[in-house]
Every structure is written in structure tokens, then in C-alpha cells.
Amino acid sequence: MELIEWQGLRYYKTCLDVTHGIFTRAGGVSPAPFEGLNVGGTVGDSVENVRANHALMYDALKVSHQAAVTTWQVHGADVVAAHAPLLHRKWQARADAIITDRPNLPLVMRFADCTPLLYYDPVHRAIGLAHAGWRGTVEGIASAVVHAMRACYGSRSEDLQVVIGPSISQQHFQVGEEVVAAVDRRFGEDAGLVRRDPVDGSAYVDLWQANKLELESVGVRSIYVMGLCTYAQSDVFFSHRAHRGRTGRFGVVMSL
User: Where does residue 113 rank: exposed (0-12), middle (13-18), buried (19+ CB within 10 A)?
Assistant: First the structure.
């Protein structure tokens, strides 16, 4: 992976041979506590700042502002296929994953501890982007995108390349027993996704490994885990937990 700087912005480019950027909070026009490149429109920042930050992201990647599409993220596992921008709004549907095979139709999503999943099919020339919080993870959003790309574009699991992007690491993702139960139901207690604190018994869940296991269960072989923790690096990425909910959202953009 490569860290790229452009006019004060910093973003990561990974092994995927397609236009994309995983943006940090560096650069941008937003004031504290959204300081930097906040692209979240529902966190308290001004509409003007958010629009300006989006424009900076698209300019950095040299993709179209007008064509960019997204979803209304709801912490689920629904997938929507995008064919063109919609009139009068950017979001295509209430969903947490979006796929396309159309060139010059940038996909964009927003994150602040949940896990970005970036998909690329180099054979059928299709891409996908997902927002995997713990709910989406246990509902199988990682595999849902694979099934959707198969159905829509004929993608094969063995051709897909998937990047698991920056999100909260197991070390910092303390959860309640209801989350532990949901993880165990989905993946099994022997999957090793839950770590217990030896002192107080509190539970910590590994979202990176959970999504990797989900992808492997449907035959995906090429999976790259970036291993960047948003909580531990909250000076680099926005982190909902590290900043106790008063923070922005960093953006991920993909385009054919």
C-alpha cells in the first residue's frame, strides 16, 4: 500500500489496480472537532464544508464530482447495484454496499471505526464498496457483496480481490455480551474472534478476521488486510469511539 499526498490531502492506495483512495482526515476545510477532511453530512459539520471536502477527494483522484454515487448507510447487509447517478440526490438506496460495472461512476462511502471493504473483479471489470460495522459483519455483508457481483456481473470468487481497510482493531473494540452472542452464532465459538480480558472478562471482537473468514467461506482467495486501527490512529482517521461520538467521517472512493 502507498500513502499519497495531494494538496494537503493524504490517502492510501492499495494493491487494487483500479482508481481508488482511502482518505485520512488530513487536509480539507472543516474545523474541530471535524478537523480536516470530514465527508460525513450528519455529524454536525456545515453542508458547505462537507461538499468542499467531497470535491477535494474527487479532484485528488481525478474522478467526476457529478457522477459520484453512494448509499444511505444503515448498518445492515443490503447491496445495491449502481447504473447511473440519480436525479437530485447522491444516495442510491438505504444499504451498506454498492457495486457497479459502469466506468466513470465513482462509488463513495463514509467511515469512523466501521470496516471498509473494497472489491475488484479484474476479469469482468466490476467493483464494490461496503461499510461493515459489527451488525453488517454478523449479517454477512462481506459475502453478500460477492453474491451480488456474481448475480449482476458473472464475477467468480476466485477472481475477486478484496481489501479490508482501516477500522477499529480487536485491541480497542470492546463489546457487550449481545455482540459476542451474535458473533458466535455467525462464526462459531471456535473461530477465535472474541478475546476476553484476563482481569475483568470483558470481550473484544476482531472485525478484520471476521470479515476475512466470511469472504473465505464463499471462495475469495485474494484478501488484503491493511491492519490500520482507526482508534489507535485517531489523529490520522476519524474514530467514533476514540472521540466519543463527536467526530467526522473519512471517505473511501472507487471508480472504474
Answer: buried
Q: What is the mean pLDDT of residues 234-253?
A: 96
**Three-class SS state of 142:** helix
Residue 157 to residue 165: CA distance in whole angstroms = 19
Q: Indicate if the pLDDT at residue 151 is higher than 90.
A: yes
- In this prediction, residue 87 has a pLDDT band, given cuts at 50, 70 and 90, of confident
d(CA 93, CA 99): 12
Q: What per-residue confidence (pLDDT) applies to 75?
A: 93
* Domain ranges for the chain: 2-255
- Does residue 181 carry a pLDDT above 90? yes
Give the CA distances from residue 222 to residues 9, 84, 147, 159, 165, in Å, rounded to whole numbers and listed in that order.
29, 29, 16, 8, 14
Rounded to whole angstroms, how far apart are CA atoms 159 and 254?
Answer: 18
Place of cell 490517502: 11
H or E element, residue 108: strand 107-111
* Contact by Cβ (8 Å): 82, 100: yes
26: left (phi over 0), alpha (psi -120 to 50) or beta: beta
- What is residue 125's DSSP assignment? T
**What residue type is 102 in one-letter code?**
R
Looking at domain 2-255, which CATH architecture does it have?
4-Layer Sandwich (3.60)
The answer to whether residue 89 scores a pLDDT higher than 90 is no
pTM flag (> 0.85): yes
| Residue 8, CA distances (Å) to 25, 114, 150 in order | 10, 25, 39
